[in-house]
Write a structure and sequence with these properties.
The chain is an alpha+beta fold. It contains nine helices and eleven strands. The radius of gyration is 22 Å and the shape is globular. This is Peptidase C1A papain C-terminal domain-containing protein.
């Protein structure tokens, strides 16, 4: 009996190994992966391990789903590069131009049940930071682009490379703070348009020589600050409705890299320390899912990432709202243009 059981186990193991081989070949072809033989062994091992994690999550988790993408065979070091947020101490600015009165008035207004800026012309297509810890620059520009377009009616794409190369307050591909990027842009006199200073750091992983040119300015900053008080979902919703997309910082667990759909949440991502963060993203909307027989209604944020349009849900993901999941409600900020 034991002999036949051993044979059955062996047959199942061989079948699983053959299936994994086929999935690995298909994955490499789909995402254009090519490795030397000695490197491929390590990559395939990571891929298969992540496949098991994806399968387990999708069997057991009714709230959000995982799937294969360009990160599925990434090493921990490669993923670490993508987490480029190094936020400085959060110090509110002195409120200027009667901002206190304006904000207090806004907080008294009723909020819509949902809002989604993804289809607004003022929101540029999702961009890709590549293998460079420049998420802070993309987060800063997304809000600035939107604010400029909302004021003028003309869409604009601003240069992330300008901040990566020129911003002395931040560390380029080694990380940064989107509010310090705004400080630099304000002091410099504005942010250049991307067509005059295109992004290249996604492939070089290095910072280039600064090529600032004030004749190609696309937006100028008049004021920026944190949303206050924090963390407070209602406050963030109010600013989102009235000022547009809100950059924020969050903690990224390994599970998020393979997100494909649903409302992301992870008990390990509810953390006590506000400064336990490593990635900059942009909140572009909010809403609530419809309840089902197995899952209750879930309030969520709509969040824009900078890992390309082929990641997640066309470059976006949903994350649970109202519980400060991954610290995402602790670091929301807003910007106003001249």
């Amino acid at each position: 009996m034991k002999f036949y059981l051993a044979i059955l186990i062996f047959i199942v193991a061989v079948a699983i190994a053959d299936q994994d081989d086929d999935l690995w070949k298909s994955y490499k072809k789909k995402f254009g992966k090519r490795y030397k033989p000695e490197k491929e062994i390590v990559r395939k091992k990571k891929f298969v391990k992540k496949l098991r994690a994806i399968e387990k999550n999708n069997r057991e988790n009714k709230k959000w789903q995982m799937g294969q993408n360009k990160f599925t065979d990434f090493t921990d070091d490669e993923k670490k590069v993508l987490r480029g947020t190094k936020m400085s101490k959060r110090v509110p600015k002195t409120i200027e131009n009667n901002e206190t009165i304006i904000i207090d008035s806004l907080l008294k207004r009723a909020l819509p049940t949902s809002i989604d800026y993804r289809r607004w012309k003022c929101l540029q297509p999702v961009k890709d930071q590549g293998q460079c810890g420049s998420c802070w620059s993309f987060a800063a520009n997304t809000a600035l682009e939107f604010s400029q377009c909302r004021k003028t009616g003309t869409a604009v794409s601003l240069s992330e490379q300008m901040a990566v190369d020129c911003d002395s307050y931040n560390l380029g591909c080694n990380g940064g703070d989107f509010t310090l990027a705004w400080q630099y842009i304000q002091e410099k006199g504005g942010a250049m348009i991307s067509s005059s200073y295109p992004y290249v750091s996604g492939t070089t992983q290095t910072n280039g020589t600064c090529k600032f040119n004030n004749s190609a300015i696309g937006a100028k900053i008049s004021f920026y600050d944190w949303t206050m008080p924090y963390p407070n979902a209602t406050v963030s919703m109010t600013y989102l409705v009235n000022y547009g997309p809100l950059p924020t910082a969050m903690k990224v667990l390994d599970s998020l890299f393979d997100y494909v759909s649903g409302v992301y949440s992870d008990p390990a991502c509810i953390v006590a320390n506000d400064y336990d963060i490593d990635h900059a993203v942009v909140i572009v909307g909010y809403g609530t899912t419809a309840a089902t027989s197995t899952v209750p209604a879930i309030p969520y944020w709509i969040v824009r990432n900078s890992w390309g349009a082929n990641w997640g849900n066309k470059g976006y993901f949903l994350i649970q709202r109202g519980v400060n999941m991954c610290n995402i409600e602790s670091w929301t900020a807003y910007v106003k243009v001249v």
